[in-house]
User: Fold this.
Amino acid sequence: MDPNPQYRDEIAAKVRKADLQDKYKFLACGVEDSKVLRGEGVTEESLDTVLSIQVLCAVGDVESVMREAWKLLKPGGSFVFWEHVTNTDPVTAVAQGMYWLLY
Assistant:
């Protein structure tokens, strides 16, 4: 799922190259587009994992996006994310720095 439909062709080519067409389908929408998601069978508590790569740095309302992502996860599901920028909150920024020192 990506709100930018321009990635459709590139992702489809990679999925075909890996012979994973039966496992992956590109959805041009955001996590908040529940009508589109429901049309594809993605409903509350239906996903094992939500993967977010360099997304939260680009959204206007992180809390809202996180709430929507958590709604989609099954109980005990995983939210996995990676960001490439340091948070502006000083406490979070220190925690990010400590994480990189440890790993």
